[in-house]
Amino acid sequence: MGLVMNSLLGSRHGGGDEFFGDVVLLLPMVGASATSLSDKSSRGHNTWTFNGTSKTVGAQFKFVTPSLSIEIASPRDVFAPDSGDWDIGDGDFTVEAHVRFRTLPVATDATILAQWAFPNFGWNCRLAAATMDMQWSTTGGNSRGSGTQVYVGGDNVIDTWFHFTWTRQGTTYRLFRDGVQAGADVVNVDIFFTSADVLHMGASDVGSSN
User: Fold this and answer.
1) CA distance 13 to 178
2) Looking at the Swiss-Prot or TrEMBL record, what is one Pfam family this protein matches (predicted)?
3) Are 197 and 117 spatial neighbours (Cβ–Cβ below 8 Å)?
4) Structure pTM?
5) For the residues of 72-98, what is the DSSP string, one character each?
């Protein structure tokens, strides 16, 4: 799996200007160098570890900034230390990213953003084969089945920028691609496990990093 990401936002309480003070991670890649990222939110999550060949590049970008490029290397992700900011629990949240796939995973999953390593499964925004979804755990050791995941159909393609958004408001989960809701609302009252895992970007589930 190879992917490029640009303008990543994570919020536990919703998106848009009304909730900007609740944004816990904002990575527009502005001013990024080959192996560093600068969080533009007020939380200042600026400690990131780049594994394998992961780096920021200017060859592909969504806007006028570099993008984060991640290949199938081992290890093959970028991660930040654990933080209470990543603990979703039963709260509202919005996670969004611009993503461009160079290849699509076939027999594996590609994580966009997650705290997802046994026995600290928390939540995982991912591409499973060609299908974008979100999975979560309530115990740290279980993965919720397909009936409680949020799916977008398997028509994602390579070499095209997509804007993916995962949201929960109250007990309603929704997933959007390019501003259009994918599939029906999913209603669930699960409380996400409070994971002690690092925050992964771009990991593959092949190996120990995810």
Assistant:
1) 20
2) Laminin_G_3
3) yes
4) 0.85
5) S-SS--EEE---GGG--TTS-EEEEEE
